[in-house]
Amino acid sequence: MNPMTQDAVRIALVGIGATAVMDAWLALLKRAGVPTLNFAFIGRWAGHALRGRWKHDAIAKAPPVAAETALGWLVHYAVGISFAGVMAGVGGIAWMRSPTLLPALAVGVGTAVAPLFIMQPAMGAGIASSRTAAPVKNCLRSLANHAVFGTGLYLAATGLQWISP
User: Fold this and answer.
1) Is the pLDDT of residue 165 over 90?
2) What is the DSSP string of 68-127?
3) DSSP letter string over 30-63?
4) How would you label 114-132 residue by residue, b for 16+ Cβ within 10 Å and e otherwise?
5) Which residue in 35, 61, 37, 36 sits closest to 48, CA to CA?
6) Residue 85 exposed, middle or buried by CB count within 10 Å (0-12, 13-18, 19+)
7) Is the pLDDT of residue 104 over 80?
8) pLDDT single digits (tens) 61-79
9) Torsion over CA: 36, 9, 68, 123 (sign)
10) pLDDT of residue 7
11) Buried b (16+ CB within 10 A) or exposed e, 37-67
């Protein structure tokens, strides 16, 4: 495998691993009774976006799309891989081979910009959850979830470094 392909595979695996860490965190929260992401709504939004509708007043009231839950999970992991690409861009591919926690946490928290300023407004929740009943609580949850994703970037890159230096 050529070095460029190796780097792309490494980025994809780190993104998948980091997203899985975030999903484990979300499963723990859900088990504790804390509301978490509804991947069907992400898939619904993506399905409508593919048809040209990017913004909704309330995604829960938008017509369902075929296989929206599966589409939501696919989008979720594709975004995780993309964010790992951002990590590689910020830290360089050298970071992927010799990861440190602080840059991963910074990138992870930085990725919270996507839900707060893109996804939430597009799905009808307003900028930074401003149209929800508890905007501050929801923003803090997003930041915490994305800090966990950043930790996942570090853990996945560290695990991959251990398996394949």
Assistant:
1) no
2) HHHHHHHHHHHHHHHHHHHHHHHHHHHHHHS--HHHHHHHHHHTTHHIIIIIHHHTTS-G
3) HHTT-----HHHHHHHHHHHHTT----S-GGGSP
4) ebbeebbbbbbbeebbeee
5) 61
6) middle
7) yes
8) 999 999 999 999 999 999 9
9) positive
10) 92
11) bebbbbbbbbbbeeeeeeebeebeebeebee
- Spell out the long-range contacts of 136-143 with Cβ–Cβ below 8 A and sequence spacing 24 or more: 141/34, 142/112, 142/115, 142/116, 143/109, 143/112
- pTM tops 0.90: yes
Residue 49 has pLDDT above 80, yes or no: yes
Compute, in degrees rounded to 10, the torsion defined by CA atoms 121, 124, 126, 130.
-150
Q: Is 98's pLDDT higher than 80?
A: yes
Confirm if 97 and 160 have CB atoms less than 8 A apart. Answer: no
For the chain, the structural domain boundaries read 3-163
Lookup: tokens for 43: 């898939």
Q: In whole angstroms, what is the distance from residue 165 CA to residue 101 CA?
A: 18
Between 20 and 163, the more confident residue is 20
